[in-house]
Design goal:
The two termini are 21 Å apart. The chain is mainly beta and 142 residues long. The strands form 2 sheets. It has a 6-stranded antiparallel beta barrel with strand order 4-5-6-9-8-7. A two-stranded antiparallel sheet has the order 1-2. Strand 5 and strand 6 form a beta hairpin. The protein has 1 helix and 9 strands. It has a domain of 99 residues: Thrombin, subunit H (Beta Barrel). 23% of the residues are buried. Helices cover 11% and strands 40% of the residues.
Length: 142
């Protein structure tokens, strides 16, 4: 899990190994809701649960990054939950732990961010370049 010293709206330290309980509840509710309606996504996604940081190009230079709790990922984008409403269409750099270790820095654009529960937002980013390390083998989807 990605460790951070400061988050917008609070602090976290190396001992903070877990996610806020609201995140698990929201992700669980979103996943349950997916089965109630037809999946409109064009791409299959892998479950990918890591804590990431997003720095928007429009953020002031010394500001803290936005905290994202990822839900799922594919080679062209990522779903997340955040305590922050983020501006649609803005670009930035997402830092997340990679599937084989190390931190990935991915240029991305905010595609969606909407309220999922009071004070919590679910959204997605699309990557400016395809990320083949997150491609699914054929026939496998979650």
């Amino acid at each position: 899990m990605l460790q951070m010293r400061e988050e917008r709206g609070g602090t976290a330290d190396a001992a903070d190994a877990g996610w806020p309980p609201q995140v698990e509840m929201i992700i669980s509710a979103l996943e349950t809701g997916q089965f109630a309606r037809r999946n409109r996504r064009g791409s299959r996604r892998n479950s990918y649960r890591v804590r990431g940081r997003l720095r928007l190009f429009s953020d002031p230079p010394m500001s803290s990054p936005w905290v994202l709790y990822t839900r799922d990922i594919h080679s062209r984008g990522l779903g997340f939950v955040s305590p922050h409403r983020l501006p649609l269409g803005y670009g930035g750099v997402l830092e997340i732990p990679g599937p084989t270790g190390g931190i990935l820095r991915l240029n991305c654009t905010l595609l969606r961010c909407r309220e999922a529960a009071p004070g919590w937002y679910e959204g997605s980013v699309y990557f400016n370049r395809e990320q083949p390390e997150f491609s699914l083998p054929s026939g496998k989807a979650e």
